[in-house]
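Deliverable D5.2: sample structural annotation.
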Amino acid sequence: MKTVIHTENAPAAIGPYSQALAFDKLVFTSGQLPLDPVTMAFVEGGVKEQAYQSLKNLKAVLEQAGAGTDTVLKTTCFLADMEDFAVFNEVYTEVFGTDAAPARSCVQAARLPKDALVEVEAIAFIK
């Protein structure tokens, strides 16, 4: 049976979707945008700041589900511009490290919701 995951510590969905769904011992997150969960506005700055906020939001959703960044198996990362790949990787490495980093796909999207520079989704196991 699937369980809807919701936390006030991450932005509310801006469409007809859940922040995440859990099934058995797995959690599947929706893409997390760099929105401040209180103001629902983008954090100030560029791709680095947006990457930090997206990953902070992802962490909040994962923790609500009983998972964490240490239990992430796979991420899909969307960048508005692949020229930002190196900067994004710096932030991503701070969160996930390199030794046991999750499997990952990273693609440039023609356009992200609300014209974000970054969006990240994940599949993780629940502790």
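Annotation notes: The helical segments are 47-65, 85-96. The mean pLDDT is 97.
The annotation will be released with the project's public dataset once the embargo ends.
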